[in-house]
Amino acid sequence: MILAILxxxxxxxxxxxxxxxxxxxxxxxxxRLGWLTFGGLVFIAILAMLVSRPGQEARLIFGGxxxxxxxxxxxxxxxxxxxxxxxxxxxxxxxxxDKGEFYTLLLISVIGMCLMASAGDIVMLYLAIExxxxxxxxxxxxxxKDVKSxxxxxxxxxFGAAASAVMLYGFSLLYGxxxxxxxxxxxxxxxxAQLPKLVVLGSLLLILVGFGFKVSVVPFHFWAPxxxxxxxxxxxxxxxxxxKAAGFAVxxxxxxxxxxxxxxxxxxxxxxxxxxxxxxxxxxxALAQKNIKRLLAxxxxxxxxxxxxxxxxxxxxxxxxxxxxLIGYLITNLxxxxxxxxxxxxxxxxxxxxxxxxxxxxxxxxxxxxxxxLSLAGMPPLVGFIAKVFVFAAAVQAGYVWLAVIGxxxxxxxxxxxxxxxxxxxxxxxxxxxxxxxISTPYRIALTVLTIGILLLGTLFAxxxxxxxxxxxxxx
Amino acid sequence: xxxxxxxxxxFTPIVAGMLxxxxxxxxxxxxxxxxxxxxxxxxxxxxxVYFSYDMQTGGYQFIERYNWLPALGIxxxxxxxxxxxxxxxxxxxxxxxxxxxSWGLDDRPREFFAFLFILASGVFGxxxxxxxxxxxxxxxxxxxxxxxxxxxxxxxxxxxxxAMKLTLYLFIGSVIxxxxxxAMWHQAGLNSFDMFHLELAQKSGAFNVAYLLPGWLATLFQxxxxxxxxxxxxxxxxxxxxxxxxxxxxxxxxxxxxAAPTAVSMFHAGVLMKLGAFAALRVGIMxxxxxxxxxxxxIMGLALVNVVYGAxxxxxxxDFKYVIGFSSVSHMGLVMLGFSTLTKEGLTGAGMQMxxxxxxxxxxxxxxxxxxxxxxxREINELGGFSKMMPWVAVAFIIGGLVSMGMPGFxxxxxxxxxxxxxxxxxxxxxxxxxxxxVITASYIIRIITKxxxxxxPEKFEHHIGDVTILDKIALVVLCAIMVTIGVYPAIMSNxxxxxxxxxxxxxxxx
Lengths: 476, 511
What we know:
The complex is a heterodimer. By secondary structure, chain A is mostly helical.
């Protein structure tokens, strides 16, 4: 049983180790902390794959606190992957790279995410969400001398606190009506007690506020652009990928387990509306952005809308497509943010216009941006295309053709602004055309891994899809 | 199934493209040689496929089949029949000549050839794909490098606008078709994207579903229900036909052609427009025959507009490249016109026209490129007397012009004549109207020949216009030889294409 929480336990140990070495090592040696964290994360991921794989049968452990299944295990690995890439991206930053507390906070938030994905009890879930969020608030505002960063941290915290308060109220309603905090039992007691629809819907709405904030869907998206813009870029990348994936992991499990079949019609309708607004608003606002991090923020809002389509389809294919989309999106968006961090290291600016001439200055980095942005736009042979096809196929299969059409129209808008960025990168010239952009080793590793990942998932997608179905099938 | 020749054809360009990206950027000659080697290899394989296709056996040959994602019925299936074998050959030819023509490109040739070859792989992939998903996959691969190729290496004045316009048009078309394809996949109920399965499903009546129309639409169309095929066909057909330049969605194409660099214009007008027409045929007409029967008059009408209107617009252009751009719109209209007859003659002619026009327009654009590179203007009135300095180019253009006018003895005649025969069978007055375009084509082609190649050379060009390089000449000779060969001996292609047309007509329950 203890093996089930091995990754979380080891993450805690790793966090302690980092703090310890931070105290022991002299300042000039502290840049090694990044490699320590990275190595630790990789080690934990490998060890987890070797010894703590869940069995065929999913089961509740620790008195129902956690649900040990392939779903939570897969998301744990995904978070570990996201965190290790983020570590690589942080390492090269002179402001953050040698700060032990940065890595510690990152690791703690990963623990929270892992627990979010596996929580089987609303108390556990709430604790996990807070364990994730509080370190992220600090990380977003980590650059204390930067006004924008502190603003980002504070804004994120205020929004987050408000959303989680509303969600907590929803949880308390659930407990009050069902008389239990275990989400698998709540579903049963809903069914037995024949509760009025209004009660169920009320708690559903309140809880959606909290989850909606985590995954940044309209109308809970306001924080995202400001926070992404102000937060250190690797943190923004982490927020838009791992943190969002964690939100979706919880959302999917919660909707499937607690609110289905009792309120399936209602939540699919609500989410369909949210999805339409999220996609449309995200894409349209992204058109006007001049700052690449804000553009990626709106694009990540739009992607949350696409992912919701798979959820709404609520079929075998739909659930699998959500998992697949999250995996693909995490890799792609990390690559996009990775390229942005790399460029920022040299130019210290996030203006899109500053990217002019990049393809002459750093062909490799330009290629990474090309791959990442085209994958976001949904072009084959990149993973973004496959993920979108799965989601839209699920929608068509479930009879939501209109939703698929809206999604498709939105992806055209998306293509426009992704191409606008690539135009600057490849077409425009700047007066610094011959100044090369140096790329340090950690960035090289991270960007190479991610680019290969995008291509690999985009072409050999069969095993990934079958894993996604296994993962999505193990929620119960 | 021994040697996976079609897969080799499909993947040679993209693998070569990746290799090219690994070459250091200063070593431009290695890049070009690698590109030429890959293009020659692909061309050789496509010639081999073309000539070793067994017409006695017929049907799809060189089939390869691998599971790609069995859970959703996605597979990798390739095969050629009489309809797409010429198009594979065409792509090989254009790719080969395109590399020769772009030998002198000096701005980032590494990226240029890499993107061009990714595009080429996408094109090959669509032509040989027998799986609907795979077709889309390669279709999109063929579309997006276009954006970069045009916007980076294109004509500085309009490239950004044209590249974005083109990409958005094509992307909108393809995603609309994608929704239609997903609907077909779902409706067939076989959980398979295999187009052979979908054809069978269609035959066995899986698409025979009728939907009730809402009241106001019912009164508008005077019918209570609409069948699945009739509903889906316009989306799928028009979605792809956007790339084929069908009216009123042809607007991107002249702009795109003009803005693109020479090799890309050749690819674009020569091959990519066929990609759209072919996909519209393969997915729209062949998988939804009842839909095609229902809508064929609409397609015929649109295609007629293409043919005549395109020719008229071409006539009034003053920019050399725009003339060729609009002539493509006009000629692609003939392809669509051939499709819409749904007769053996029409389809055979359309198939041959795709090939013939591909070669011809590749030649035209390479000539435009050669003239522009030397004169730095494309205004027809400012040019003149180029035949003295560039005799090879002038001869090549005249041969292309004769093809374009449909002169007997050249491939254009072998292609257009059957189309008009087919059209005459179903609607004689359409054939009469469409034939106006031949006259107009003659007028603008002859105007170009007179003004650009003959007449007096303006003084400013007198001394610094040189002849084209030997590589350019090789490219021109290859293209001309193909057009003359088919013109003199059409059976080399028409038998093959008509065997493909027979297969299509069998899907309609006809001969």
